[in-house]
Specification:
The protein is α/β, with parallel strands linked by helices. The protein contains five helices and seven strands, in the order H-E-H-E-H-E-E-H-E-H-E-E. It has a single domain, classed as Rossmann fold, CATH 3.40.50. It has a seven-stranded mixed sheet, sandwiched between helices. The structure holds S-adenosylmethionine.
Length: 199
Amino acid sequence: MNQTSRAADPLLPPRPTALAHLILRDVILAGDLALDATAGNGHDTLFLAECVGAGGRVLAFDVQAAALATAQARVTSAGLQERVGFFLESHAGMAEHAPAGSAAAVMFNLGYLPGAPHEVVTAPATTLKGLECAAVLLKAGGLLSVVCYPGHPGGAAEAAAVEQWFATRADMGWRVARYGAIATRRPAPFLLLGCKGPS
Ligand SMILES: C[S@@+](CC[C@H](N)C(=O)[O-])C[C@H]1O[C@@H](n2cnc3c(N)ncnc32)[C@H](O)[C@@H]1O
């Protein structure tokens, strides 16, 4: 028997943001359209730009100019700027930017921009509008991922509203799931995933 032990990997189990990437990586194909509803520092935007390949397209939204600039710089330094359109706009209006049923994936990473003042934060009313846009934009079989943060002020109410919205999708033929750490000292972030059913 092999007795070698390995050091505990601090990245296991994967955090919700990493888990979203692991799952979406296999769903998004070269040439697809994908949307980043909360571009922030651009980690998800860059990930999506890599997934869609040279013939694909990513639309990235944020309400903070500084966030978009950081995201744009990240994508540009990877040489993938031709694949991405950046919009200084709320995700509440993103359905105007692509045809219904055209997207393979839509990602949300809620909360505030890490390292920035916390005044600008996602809010339930606009988040729910953004989710409705995502539902319109996704093609059948497309994936919606939302990372929720119940640990900051207002975050628990937003996370509950989003989870409730996902539950309503199950009644509409979507497959939906929730993933997150348990037995944590503070409310842990969690990932909601929805696979749109045939309309
Ligand atoms: C947790 S950060 C996103 C992190 C990002 N996905 C990344 O990979 O770096 C959340 C972002 O949502 C943005 N945001 C807040 N309200 C928004 C809205 N209504 N529409 C689009 N973005 C919004 C914030 O400005 C912030 O940059």
